[in-house]
């Protein structure tokens, strides 16, 4: 197996100073007495990226992802270990890196392309294609200091991918830009991969890493805590995130006028036992325990479901109903029963809301305060034949028809 990038025992640290100099005089007088501590950004990092693969780097903020990518790009020099790169490389790292704010977009295309190793003739030959991909034809002669963050990324990505590198490094490229641009990026990344090029992606969007990457590493406090198949690494990261969320609730935001409150939300298992674990694809019930210090006519309740990283997946609300919940005066219990919760196994966060009959005034809103762990059902025959992507469990069967 050919290797594009080999990282062997790489470490990198920074100095964190206790005090900041207020003036040149203070710096001179202090001299060498300035106190600092070493912060280990990377600690003994080793891995290999196979040629022609898409490789992912994931982890929380401050875990060392961007520092590692900068070391691979040659922007930072590690204090220990070595990095070997086989082939030409282009990197799209920090927003605006490689651009001069006072120059026009046109001038910055040539500047950035030169930094990435292209000749002026090569840039001239690909200029129209670069600008067309960026979608900035109407702004290409304006100074880039007038560009939005999305325009910066459009132009930077367009230049990087048109240098035809053997290795492409991308740091949170899909975090900025509209949906159409993100789609174009994904299509371009797919095309580069099909051409046998190597791509390394840093992203907080772990679903993107699971979808695009063959292999990945998980960084935590500058160390590799998991590496291997991208799906397995992403699962390990999500599982760790799940475990870091308290099970006793009240870790999300809470707001509202307070005359009425949602005291608790209990998830009833299929056998009627209260738990925060339920079975994917099977019936599930939610019990709202509410209280009020005032009489509220026709109150409304709502339940929202979020992915573990906070993406809203959907919700259900109780319309004002005189027969189900005509009034809240003191204490009340209201049950919500769903025929099935068709989400793939994993951890999810729940929000609950108590509002007036017009759903305008909020008495109590508890955001992402309770976790539910969905586990697979015992009927796994069909699941084994389905590769599920995303949070929704679509179900179904594959069948080959012989012609």
Automatic annotation (TrEMBL):
Signal peptide: none annotated. It holds the Pfam family Wzt_C. Transmembrane segments: none annotated. GO terms for cellular component: membrane. SMART domains: AAA (SM00382). One of its GO terms (molecular function) is ABC-type transporter activity. SUPFAM superfamilies: P-loop containing nucleoside triphosphate hydrolases. Keywords: ATP-binding, Nucleotide-binding, Transport. The keyword Membrane does not apply. The keyword Transmembrane helix does not apply. Residues 5-246 form the ABC transporter domain. Belongs to the ABC transporter superfamily. This is Unannotated protein.
